[in-house]
Amino acid sequence: MVVEALDTIAGSSAIDCDVIAARLSECLDSLSTNGPLYDALQNGDFKQEFGRPKCELEIEVRFGSIRNHLDGQKFNLPLSTDALVSERAHVKFAAGVSSSQYTAAHSFLKQLSEDYDSKSQWDANLNVLTYDRFFRLPEYEESVRISVPQNQTNSRDKSFLAIRKVKLATWNVYTGNFSKETQQNEETPMEAVSDQLDYRIAVNLEYRVPLREMPTTSTAKLCRKKSRDSYVHKKAGLRFDLSQVQVVDNDTVVKDNEPISHEVEMELMGETIIGVLMNDLLSHVDRVQLLKYHCSTLIRAVKHFRDVITKGDADSGNVDIMGSNIMTARLGLCDFRFVQQDEETIKRYRMVISPQLPLIGDYLFRAVTPALEKEKAKTQKRSPYREHVDEIPGPYIVVDDGPYKGKRVALGERL
């Protein structure tokens, strides 16, 4: 059994958590001690009532682009890493992706959810058509969204869902794309960043609004037709929403020449975080550590998913949602005997892990060295790293059973 180390000898966190994930976990912890989230926890608003809670916590990431307020051009910084944009910056976030990026996201999630080895970890809810109408009601400060399922728009007696959203935190995250190449060529940056996706992190409370009947459509501020595909990775606690949206005059008529916008969102399941915040058995230190664990899962998954849909799977490495609740490139113990890695992966391995090619176990002495001594390696067409594999036990992989049970070593499948 390999146990995950949550603390260093000095007492600091040992969880792999970048600045954005750490800030998000600290934000959630702070929100739970004062304000609307604290009040909701104290009032029991997250307890189940008639099959669902009165209130739900939403931790959402939406892809799009950060743009200047004045000219609407894409906001750019001389950075090669992701960065939180100050609230004082004169920018706005424009949600949405291109049709090609939407198709890439859909194909990627479809492939993952249908893979034989991982499909049991996925739930898919496809082709859900709803009509969203937004109202200003005198009883509430926030706008109220009323969602009506398909074929239920002509009767006030049928089901609908009314939600008011209380905003707790909103962050714009700029995606760094600055490099020496773009610095040397003035024309490159605009072309290079045109398809680059920024993202917005939003923390909200969603309250159900008790309405006996729907307001008339004519009083709505906005009406939208939305077709959505949702994929949920159960173990990771992540949901992916892919939506095609059109503005409509009413619930059935699309406005003339109204384009279809494509939206890609990711969400960390709110009940997971609420479970951490409501666990009285946890110390404050342990609570923060678990929040970092889940927030790191979300942010790392966001970055890999963004790279997949903007650059393609070939540029992002072999991406998968692993048992460690993290969407990560298969890089760690990179055994060249079983998997032919691309040059980019090899370059990344040498830069991050070791400047030498990986030597797993005593394979060098049991297979490569004898072949070299017999001068067979010079005449072989295949690399000696791909020979004699049947004589070698393994490969062994690390399986993560969660933050409580930790990690263990298991026999993996030979490719």
Structure description:
This protein is α+β, with helices and mostly antiparallel strands and 415 residues long. It has two domains: 19-318, Alpha-Beta Barrel (mRNA Triphosphatase Cet1, Chain A), CATH 3.20.100; 343-411, no CATH class. The chain contains ten helices and 16 strands. It has helices spanning 19-31, 36-42, 99-114, 180-184, 188-193, 270-277, 284-311, 313-316, 343-352, 363-373; strands spanning 48-49, 52-53, 55-68, 83-85, 91-95, 122-135, 144-149, 161-174, 198-208, 222-233, 238-247, 261-268, 319-321, 327-329, 396-400, 407-411. The chain has an eight-stranded antiparallel beta barrel, surrounded by five helices. β1 and β2 form a beta hairpin. α6 (270-277) packs antiparallel against α7 (284-311). The protein is globular and about 85 Å long. The two termini are 24 Å apart.
Radius of gyration: 25 Å
Net shape? globular
From the 3D coordinates, which CATH architecture of the largest domain would you assign? Alpha-Beta Barrel
Order of helices and strands: HHEEEEEHEEEHHEEEEHHHEEHHEE
CATH C-level name of the largest domain? Alpha Beta
- Percentage of residues in strands: 25-35%
Q: How many independent structural domains? A: 2
Unreliable runs, pLDDT <50, ≥5 residues?
1-6, 153-157, 179-184, 188-193, 313-340, 359-366
**Total DSSP helices:** 10
Major sheet details: 8 strands, antiparallel, barrel
Helix content: 25-40%
Overall mean confidence score, pLDDT: 76
Class derived from helix and strand content:
alpha+beta
Distance between the termini: 24 Å
Can you list the strand order of the major beta sheet?
3-9-8-7-6-10-11-12
Superfamily at the CATH H level of the largest domain? mRNA triphosphatase Cet1-like
Topology, number of strands:
16
What is the third-level CATH name, the topology of the largest domain? mRNA Triphosphatase Cet1, Chain A
Catalytic activity: a 5'-end triphospho-ribonucleoside in mRNA + H2O = a 5'-end diphospho-ribonucleoside in mRNA + phosphate + H(+)
Protein name: mRNA 5'-phosphatase
Main location: nucleus
Domain mRNA triphosphatase Cet1-like: 56-175, 195-268
